[in-house]
Amino acid sequence: MTSVPVADPRAGFLQVRPELVDAFAAVLDSGDYILGEQVAAFEREWASYCGTTHSVGVSSGTDALALALRAVGVGPGDEVLVPAMTAIATWMAVCQIGATPVGVDVEEQRYGMDPRLAQAAVGPRTRALIAVHLFGQPADVDALARVAATAGIPLIEDAAQAHGARVAGRMTGSLGSLAAFSFYPTKNLGAMGDAGALTTSDPELAQRLRRLREYGWRTRDDAELKGVNARLDELQAALLRVMLPRLRAATERRRVIASTYLDGLAGTPELELPPRVSDTEPAWHLFVLHHPRRKALAAALARAGIGTAVHYTPAPPFNTAFRADGWRDGVFPVAERHAATALSLPMYPALSDRDVARVVEEVHAACDVG
Ligand SMILES: *Cc1c(COP(=O)(O)O)cnc(C)c1O
Which residue, judged by its Cα, is nearest atom 2 of ligand 1? Predict the structure, then answer.
C-alpha cells in the first residue's frame, strides 16, 4: 500500500520536468539572474491572471505583505488588523516593519476576519486591515472593505493561499488596494524556493513597490525611499512561468477533489466539513475538517498510510513571540476552537482519484470506530 502525503509539490514539478529543465538552462545561459526579462514577463502574466494592471515580483509572501504595508505608509507604532487564525507569517510581516498586529477573531462559516469584530477593533492607531483568504476560501471582502473605508484605511489581501479563488466572479488579488501572494513550493502556484508577488491596479503603489523592493532606488544614482532587498530571481520567475499556464487546470483539479471529499464525507458522525459559501469559488489550498478527537483521527489515518497536518495550532497570538503582547485565552473563541479541532487532509492536483477514494474510505473507517 503506497502512502498518500498531505502535500506533494514534487509530483507537480515532475509532470513538467523537461520544460523546467529547459527553463533553468535558458536562465543559466542568459547571464541575467535577478530582476531581468523572466521576472518582467512573469509580472505581466501574473497581473493578467489576477485581473490587475500591475504585479511586482518579490522574494517571498512575507516580504510581499511587509512591502504592501510600507507602500501604503504603515510604519513603527502603527496598528494593523489581522485575523486571529492565519499562517503566522501574516502576523510576522506586520512586526517586520515595526508595526503591531492586532488580532480579530474569524467567522465560523468562512474562516476570514469577522467584519463586525473588525469594526469594533478599529482604534486611533489602526492604519491598515489585512484580509486573509485562509485555505483558499475568500474572506468576506465586501464587508471588510466597508469597514476599511469607514476607518479610512487600506484593505490589503493576504492571498498567499488563494491563487485563482473568486468572489462573485472577481479574482482574489484584485479585491483590495493591493494583494500579497506567496509562491512557496507547496502553495497553489509554487516555485522551487522562496518567491512572492504583489498585485495592484494603482500605478503609483506599483511604482513605490518597485522602488521599495530594491534599496529604494528610483535610479541607480538615487535611492528615493528607505528600501530593502526583496528582489525576485530570474530562475524562480522562469520556473513560475512554466507552472502558471497549468494553474487553471490545477485549481479545477483541487475543486474536483474537494467536492469528492465533501460528498463522500457528508454525514460522517462528529466530522465537520469545510463550509460551502455561496458566490465564492475557493482555490482549495488546503482541505481542513474539524473533529473533536483529531489526534486519534490523525493517528488512525497515519496507520493507513495517509498523511495529515494541522493548520494551525496554536493560533498566531498564542505563540511565545506574541503571548508577551498580552493576548489571553478566550478572546478569540472561534480561532481557538479551530486550532483545537482542525485537521487537513491530502490536497494537491497530482492526487489520483484512487487516492482520494482511499482517503474518504479511511476517514469513514476511523470515524465509525469512534
Ligand atoms: C505562506 C503564507 C504566507 C507567507 O509566505 P512565504 O512565501 O512563506 O513568506 C503568508 N500568509 C499566508 C496566509 C500564507 O499561507
Answer: 160
CA distance 127 to 69: 9
pLDDT given for residue 39 in this prediction: 98
How much is the pLDDT for 50?
Answer: 98
pTM: 0.97
Give me 214's grid cell.
530594491
Helix (H) or strand (E) holding 5: none
The DSSP call for residue 21 is H
Of all atoms in ligand 1, which is nearest to the CA of residue 86? Answer: 13
pLDDT at 369: 61
Q: How far is the CA of 183 from the centre of ligand 1 (A)?
A: 8
156 — phi, psi (to 5°)?
-110, 130
Pairwise CA distance, residues 170 & 166, whole Å: 5
Longest dimension (CA), the chain: 70
Cβ-count burial 45-84 (b if 16+ within 10 Å, e if not): bbbebbbbebbbbbbbbbbbbbbbbbbbebeeebbbbbbb
